[in-house]
Design a protein that fits this description.
heterodimer, A: 503 residues, eight-stranded antiparallel sheet, B: mainly beta, eight-stranded antiparallel β-barrel, four-stranded antiparallel sheet, 6% helix, 58% strand, elongated
Chain lengths: 503, 165
């Protein structure tokens, strides 16, 4: 029975797990990189230890250092969060060797589901349907992939075997596009995961991305907590998630839930995990992958079911039975989540770095914000651009959307650009309100800014007054400070130099 | 003081009459304009209606983020506007374009060579930041003149990467 938990992660998820530790009365340990000395998770934990320089591979990916720190500070459990070391079989195994409880599945389950090709074979053997693609384990050369591509049929996806989060993923519409796409996919996969292996998968059109949350304890109990609809993505990065899915019915939920439980049992799964499916418009579903960890979007399920998934993970790791049986699990109302990223939606979603100078979080009924940033915190280019998750609960889907609109309007972040305006427009979109979207919605049918007239909040004249008053104030101020020809040289010369300097 | 604020193809004539009054076109309105605690956030109460906006400087205009909508606004006084009209047209098609790093990051690839002709929208450089590869594209057609970075180099924000003429 462990009493002290080391959280091997950063950002909002580290804070989320530390909160669970606090509630359960366990001591907590944070680890951090040089760039994160002032991060919230360091300030929140009971103890904190420096890992190393800012880049992940010198800090949050240093499994050896993390285990060393855990030993020295007598932490008897490690929670990996998501990303970084969460799905490294070797890390889970190293924890076990060091006599430290790894809060997550067994190394064998991580290994089986971690390699996507092995995962597909495993679930196929358990009778779970998979998306047509290159089966068979091992790496395939470009020539082999080119030969097999026409058999799968176009359009298809090139995916990284070790992948996730859309990295190393490319879409091919014809055999001619394949060679260059294979090269770039391999390059990105190599850079992100240190493994350039790729495989092919048929691209289902009009498909929705629906995933089932699983909990499994050491006593052989496996239950599912229903689905999350994560179809709203941009370049395979999830942006908005909801539960229940507006596309699901009770019969399909039952069926997919049962299949997900079967897939989890096939690898003797333990702790929290997620089975991702693609569901086509005729409600046929296919196994996509299993994430053997806590998901970014887990709060959606927590808010919709009332179950604290992280607390259950701790309970499972302590060897207790699950607190719930399958028949206890019920959705109450509707939950929505928007991922707030430091990205400029008006500038091709380019990441934005800088110091957050001002931040006002939305509060009030039915609102939850999971974040790891605060005013004065610096957003660096070293880590993921996600800075917060905004989750709302509503009695109905309609109420949840209205509440999300209100919360997005309340949310103020100054210092970095965020994708909040994107979410606001999404909440105003009639197709989103109608639940009529698939995984291609953002790319195919959504453009920023929406043309005027499509939104009731189009006020160019007010914007004109704002800009004029700001410009006027600036003019007045500069007129007070700089008198003409007060510089030691002519203003023209000065301007010329200034322009050259700024080339 | 009279200004012309341009949003897209719409022009608004905004006259700042005194601290409490502006006119838009021929309509005079009561205003109360406040900066919020030194941040680029402003509160405007105009004829009793309350608005809040985030106003920051863009390339050569002001960006106003109001109720989730972004408005690029070019504000000029009458003299500036006449000067620009006399100069005729926009200059962006002829001036040198310096591609600057929109954020700090690592140059993954330079997909063009010096003296190469490029089309509008063509990818010039792939920059990795926040674990994502970002394609930096050419805003117009032209010729690549100077390339100042190599793959594998880390760059600062606003650092000039290459020039298109």
């Amino acid at each position: 029975m462990f009493k002290k938990v080391l959280v091997a992660n950063r950002g909002e998820i580290a804070v989320r797990i530390l909160r669970a530790c606090r509630e359960l009365g366990m001591e907590s340990v944070a680890v951090y990189s040089e760039a994160d000395r002032n991060a919230l998770h360091v300030r929140y934990a009971d103890e904190a230890y420096l890992l190393g320089p800012a880049p992940s591979r010198e800090s949050y990916l240093r499994a050896d250092k993390i285990i060393d720190i855990a030993r020295k500070c007598h932490a008897d459990a490690i929670h990996p969060g998501y990303g970084f070391l969460a799905e490294r079989e070797s890390f889970a195994a190293a924890c076990a060797d060091a006599g430290i409880m790894f809060i997550g599945p067994k190394p064998s389950a991580i290994a089986a589901m971690g390699d996507k090709m092995v995962a597909r074979e495993t679930v196929l053997a358990a009778g779970v349907p998979v998306v047509p693609g290159t089966e068979g384990t091992g790496s395939m050369s470009d020539d082999e992939l080119l030969a097999v591509a026409p058999k799968i049929g176009f359009p298809l996806l090139i995916k990284a075997s070790a992948g996730g989060g859309g990295k190393g993923m490319r879409e091919a519409n014809s055999i001619e596009d394949m060679p260059s796409l294979l090269t770039s996919a391999r390059r990105e996969a190599e850079a992100s995961f240190g493994d350039g292996n790729v495989y092919l998968e048929k691209l289902l059109e009009g498909a929705r991305h629906i995933e089932i949350q699983i909990l499994a304890d050491q006593h052989g109990n496996v239950i599912h907590l229903g689905e999350r609809d994560c179809s709203l993505q941009r370049r395979h990065q999830k942006l908005i998630e909801e539960a229940p899915s507006p596309f699901m019915d009770e019969a399909l939920r039952e069926k997919m839930g049962t299949v997900a439980v079967k897939a989890a049992r096939a690898v003797e799964y333990l702790s929290a995990g997620t089975i991702e499916f693609l569901v086509d418009k005729d409600k046929n579903f296919y196994f996509l992958e299993m994430n053997t960890r806590l998901q970014v979007e887990h709060p959606v399920t927590e808010v919709a079911t009332g179950i604290d998934i992280v607390a259950e993970q701790m309970r499972i790791a302590r060897g207790r039975q699950l607190s719930y049986k399958q028949e206890d699990i019920r959705f109450r109302g509707h939950a929505l989540e928007c991922r707030i990223n430091a990205e400029d939606p008006y500038n091709g979603f380019l990441p934005s770095t800088g110091r957050i100078t001002h931040s006002l979080l939305p509060t009030g009924p039915g609102v939850r914000v999971d974040t790891g940033v605060y005013p004065g915190f610096e957003i660096t280019p070293y880590y993921d651009p996600m800075i917060a998750k905004l989750i709302v609960w509503g009695e109905t889907r309609g109420q949840a959307i209205l509440r999300m609109r209100r919360a997005l309007e309340e949310y103020r972040i100054v210092g970095v650009r965020t994708n909040i305006p994107f979410h606001q427009m999404m909440m105003d979109s009639h197709r989103f309100m109608g639940g009529q979207y698939d995984t291609r919605f953002v790319e195919e049918r959504f453009a920023l800014p929406l043309s005027q007239g499509e939104r009731e909040t189009y006020h160019p004249e007010i914007a004109a007054v704002f800009a004029t008053l700001v410009a006027h104030d600036a003019n007045q101020r500069s007129a007070e400070f700089v008198m003409p020809n007060e510089r030691d040289t002519s203003n023209w010369k000065w301007m010329g130099r200034w322009e050259r300097m700024h080339r | 003081m009279k200004y012309i604020a341009t949003i897209g193809d719409k022009e608004f004539t905004v006259d700042v009459l005194d601290k409490r009054h502006v006119s838009i076109g021929d309509q005079i309105m009561d205003v109360d304009f406040e900066n919020i605690s030194g941040q680029p956030v402003y509160s405007l109460v105009i004829d009793g209606k309350s608005y809040e906006a985030y106003v920051y400087e863009g390339e050569n205009e002001l960006q106003v983020l109001l109720q989730g909508q972004q408005y690029p606004v070019k504000v000029e006084d009458e003299r500036e506007k006449r000067l620009r009209a006399a100069a005729g047209g926009t200059v962006s098609e002829t001036a040198e374009f310096h591609l600057r790093a929109p954020m700090p990051g690592l140059v993954v690839a330079v997909t063009v060579e010096a003296d190469q002709q490029v089309a509008k929208g063509q990818v010039l450089i792939i920059l990795e930041s926040m674990k994502m590869q970002n394609e930096l594209k050419s805003p117009r057609a032209g010729k690549v003149t100077r390339i100042r970075v190599k793959p594998g180099e880390t760059v600062e924000q606003r650092q000039t990467l290459l020039t298109v003429t």
